[in-house]
Design goal:
The complex is a heterodimer of chains A (494) and B (436). Chain A is α+β, with helices and mostly antiparallel strands. Chain A is built from 17 helices and 14 strands. The model of chain A is unreliable at 463-494 (pLDDT under 50). The chains are: A alpha+beta (494), B alpha/beta (436).
Chain lengths: 494, 436
């Protein structure tokens, strides 16, 4: 553990380095390093410095609007928010069970988005690091470089993502920020034309997904001793699992494993999340730090997302992905796989799982059914949880008698990984950066560690924040300060 | 034979229009299948003349065609560039006066204000937002009033008075405090005799009077104005599809066709959805990259804008001082700046916080949040100062073009970028112009 790097003992006389913005991730974040004259990192932090604000301003909006509104948290995984909020408003409208068709359409939508989000992350954003090297030339260390050097691989990535986006489009009417979930169901059946359109390419998609698993695995194993320990952590793992312990991204109950793979809890109803999870606030970032209440904030942190899910589940209910999972688990031996870079491998196993699920769903005659909505007796509270591409996503709403939201709480997937993200980059500082001259290439190691988690910093910036421009705040500052602008009382910006 | 009443005529844009004594210009135009833009006019009710969108040039003077009686040999001009510009401005003023968030409004796609904006080719709002404080009244079991979206057309007032005989609605207050008020002791809709079957529940041209339980049931693509422009729906003039054109009088792009252009992109207070929609060009990205060189962008590791960029695409609104710094750098480095998506153009969903008290916001997230330990408000020198409000980028820098949508469709990116690459003035056809 490298907690010591969270705060330097004395920040005076340290050199400040900043990675801003952290690139090839979704959203806005920055990393600051305080480094002494011997190039030893004394402090390292990932800051979430951008704010929009949802939990407060959705208060007073009607509950049926929420899935459409809150998906605008994030343009990469809007469907996760749409579905999590959709599940919560199902509960508010008193519906515990959807029609078979509506349920399967939701599954199809969710697996379509998992496919596109994972493909985007691996191919468009991360593959340059893995294919060219962490400290390779900046000018080609991007998707354009990959297109030039590995055109076939790049094209497979582009088309995998496209397929997932098309699944979303046929269900929601748009690829990004469409409409689908309404209280108690869905607003449109899947047409036969659209089903056949998607079926036409599914075998090719599954074949490419298998290639993606191989690519991620081979990249990882090619330099296994280095990759195994890079940004390495031993952690707990939290995810939903199905009733039988199987991998399920749409619905299930919470399971927590410790770093040795022992079950700390299992089959916990997510509606009890308030008794399981708390969040700590730290002054230097707007992203909170969740932890398991019973374990306390020092040891109760955990990781979520593909690595957690593949480590946690007992099996994957599709054949090819299950074979891939067994290989992954065999690599870990008796323990969960802890390597941060193994996230990529786990993520591609989920791409394969999603592709196989999509095929299953498209082959199901109920998928084109017309019964889409159920009604129930209105309740005042709803909680919806899904496994979003980046991890477990919680949406919780309370509603007044007039149907308007009175309270909202969101714990987004990336937030769960906040402690792990910070710990990982501190490990990189200790093991890769200390003693070296700081350069762009050296700093990219930190970004490589961040990217492994596929953090969605857009999602992470949802928390309300609006710091008033007050002079006192400046007096608190010591050390270097980036030049800032201020806002006059008349609104003039200077 | 006596001259029949029908033989009286006047002209609209040179076309001879018959009318009956006592008819207004609007009534005669509708009978002749000529579309004059309007929002507050509805043939079932007494004309109000409040929205002014039907203003025409009538014998050389600007008059509301819904309130002007047709007269023999009157000369009316309806389709002129001058009137289109004025009507666009009126629509922009209606948008900034209220709080119109098309991206999550359940009336989007079926909204006449939005449809008119599409028809007139409105791509930006030009004016600063009023951020008026308006209420939502959801007290009625079947109906909701979202006053944020009221445009004061008074159709509900007239419907309630003239048809329902209930007089439930009225206008109260002045200036920015002007509002649709309810005629009941409590001021709430639940304490009136209003029923969901009333005419006034089915008259609102925008998303102010909402029937509960209907939201988002019509899928995208099947809404009225997804398929037809507002002027086509009534079959008024099937041949008249106005092309959307950028509002800003941008300098002629000093671009050489065929030259590789330097493109920079960034996201301020946004969700990255616009960048994702950019990537939704799919395989066409590869084609585009043959003509474009990428400078600073979240898609690569270049962290600052090259000083000689040709194009800058900005997603997101301006919520903190860092956004301002980045935005000004982009303006200094890029010959052309395009505001991309709702947030950049009018603040978008994040600007919902513009009407909420600062302390309220901070407390909700960091002090009163569910399951929060160590409650405190983050303050650190590494965290940029937040602004009082979320601003559209045109309130901070000059913007050359606007690409609306939440997000704009990939085809719209493709169209606009290719227009610019070919040295043409960018234009969006109707089917690529969306506010949601």
């Amino acid at each position: 553990m490298t907690h010591s790097l969270e705060a330097a003992e004395n920040s005076i006389n340290l050199n400040r380095f900043v990675i801003e913005p952290v690139s090839r991730v979704e959203g806005h974040g920055k990393v600051t390093l305080l480094v002494d004259d011997n190039n030893q990192v004394q402090q390292c932090r990932l800051h979430i410095a951008e704010f929009r604000g949802f939990e407060r301003f959705i208060q007073g909006r009607p509950y049926w609007e929420i899935p459409i509104l809150v998906q605008r948290l994030c343009g990469i995984c809007p469907v996760s928010h749409h579905i999590a909020a959709g599940k919560a408003i199902d509960m508010i409208s008193g519906v515990t069970e959807l029609t078979e068709t509506a349920y399967k359409l939701r599954l199809l939508l969710h697996y379509g988005q998992t496919l596109q989000s994972h493909a985007l992350h691996f191919f468009h954003l991360c593959s340059p690091d893995l294919l060219f090297g962490f400290e390779s030339d900046i000018t080609s260390r991007n998707i354009i470089g990959v297109i030039e050097k590995y055109p076939e691989l790049a094209m497979q990535g582009v088309k995998l993502r496209k397929y997932g986006q098309e699944v979303i489009r046929v269900i929601c009417g748009k690829r990004i920020h469409g409409t689908g979930c309404i209280p108690g169901g869905m607003n449109k059946p899947l047409s036969y034309e659209d089903k056949n359109y998607l079926l036409a390419d599914i075998e090719q998609i599954i074949a490419w997904a298998e290639c993606a698993v191989k690519t991620a695995r081979d990249c990882y194993l090619a330099n296994e001793p280095f990759h195994k320990n890079f940004a390495g952590l031993r952690s707990n793992y939290l995810s939903l699992v199905g009733a039988d312990g199987e991998l399920d991204l749409y619905h299930g109950k919470l399971r927590l494993k410790d770093s040795s793979g022992n079950l700390l809890f299992d089959q916990q109803d997510y509606c009890d999340y308030q008794n399981l999870i708390q969040e700590e606030v730290k002054s230097w970032t707007y992203m909170k730090f969740p932890f398991i209440k019973a374990m306390g904030k020092e040891s109760g942190w955990y990781r979520t997302g593909p690595l957690a899910r593949i480590n946690n589940c007992d099996y994957i209910p599709t054949p090819l992905a299950e074979i891939a999972r067994q290989e992954f688990v065999a690599y870990g031996g008796k323990e969960p796989v802890h390597s941060t870079l193994a996230y990529h491998w786990a993520r591609m196993i989920e791409v394969l799982f999603s592709a196989e699920k999509i095929k299953q769903l498209l082959g199901d005659p109920m998928i084109t059914g017309k019964e889409l909505i159920v009604q129930g007796k209105r309740r005042s509270e709803g909680i919806g949880v899904v496994e979003a591409p980046r991890g477990t996503l919680f949406h919780h709403y309370q509603v007044g008698e007039d149907d308007l939201i009175t309270k909202a709480n969101l714990i987004v997937a990336t937030t769960h990984n906040n402690t792990a993200l910070n710990e990982s980059i501190r490990t990189v500082c200790s093991e890769q950066i200390n003693g070296r001259e700081i350069s762009e290439a050296v700093l990219n190691n930190i970004e490589v560690a961040i990217r492994a988690y596929d953090p969605c910093l857009s999602c992470a910036t949802h928390a309300i924040g609006k710091m008033p421009l007050k002079v006192e705040m400046r007096r608190l500052q010591s050390g270097e300060l980036i030049s800032q602008l201020s806002k006059d009382s008349d609104g003039t910006l200077r | 034979m006596v001259m029949s009443k029908q033989s009286k005529t006047f002209t609209i844009d040179g076309r001879e229009i018959p009318f009956i004594e006592g008819e207004t210009v609007m009534q005669a135009a509708i009978k002749a299948n000529i579309y004059i833009p309007h929002l507050c006019f509805n043939p079932e009710f007494t004309p109000n003349g409040s929205c002014k969108l039907c203003t025409c040039d009538i014998n050389g003077r600007k008059k509301s065609s819904c309130c002007t009686l047709a007269q023999q040999d009157m000369q009316v001009k309806n389709e002129t560039r001058e009137l289109t510009v004025m009507r666009r401005t009126l629509v922009q003023m209606l948008f900034v006066e209220g709080n119109h968030y098309c991206p999550f409004c359940e009336r989007s796609g079926n909204c006449q204000l939005q449809a008119l904006a599409y028809d007139l080719g409105v791509t930006d709002l030009h004016f600063p937002q009023f951020n008026a404080k308006r209420n939502v009244d959801a007290s009625h079991p079947d109906l909701m009033l979202d006053l944020n979206r009221c445009i004061f057309c008074e159709l509900c007032i007239r419907a309630s008075r003239e048809v329902d005989k209930k007089d439930i609605f009225t206008i109260a207050g002045r200036s920015i405090n002007k509002r649709l008020a309810i005629n009941s002791k409590s001021g709430h809709l639940k304490d009136t005799t209003m029923k969901v079957t009333d005419k006034s529940a089915h008259i609102c041209p925008v998303g102010c009077i909402i029937i509960k339980g209907e939201g988002f049931k019509t899928p995208i693509g099947q809404r009225i104005y997804d398929q037809h422009s507002i002027r086509d729906v009534g079959n008024l003039r099937p041949d008249s599809l106005i092309k959307a054109k950028s509002q800003m009088q941008a300098a002629e792009p000093e671009l050489q066709p065929k030259k590789k252009l330097k493109l920079a992109t960034c996201s301020l207070a946004g969700c990255f959805g616009c960048h994702m929609s950019f990537l939704d060009m799919d395989e066409r990205i590869i084609e585009l990259l043959e003509r474009v060189e990428l400078s600073r962008s979240p898609l690569n590791d270049i962290k600052s804008c090259a000083p000689d960029c040709d194009l800058g695409l900005i997603e997101g609104g301006v919520c903190n001082t860092e956004n301002i710094t980045v935005l000004r750098q982009f303006r200094a480095c890029c010959k052309i700046i395009i505001a991309v998506g709702s947030c950049a153009i009018n603040g978008g969903v994040p600007s919902l916080r513009n009407n909420i008290d600062v302390k309220d916001c901070l407390d909700e997230a960091y002090l009163n949040g569910i399951g929060v330990v160590n409650p405190k408000i983050p303050i650190d020198k590494e965290l940029p100062y937040l602004l009082e409000k979320v601003y559209p980028i045109h309130e901070v820098i000059k913007v050359d073009y606007f690409l609306p949508g939440c997000p704009p469709p990939a085809d719209a990116f493709w169209k606009i970028l290719n227009d610019l690459l070919d040295g043409k003035e960018p234009e969006l056809p109707y089917d690529l112009l969306h506010f949601d």
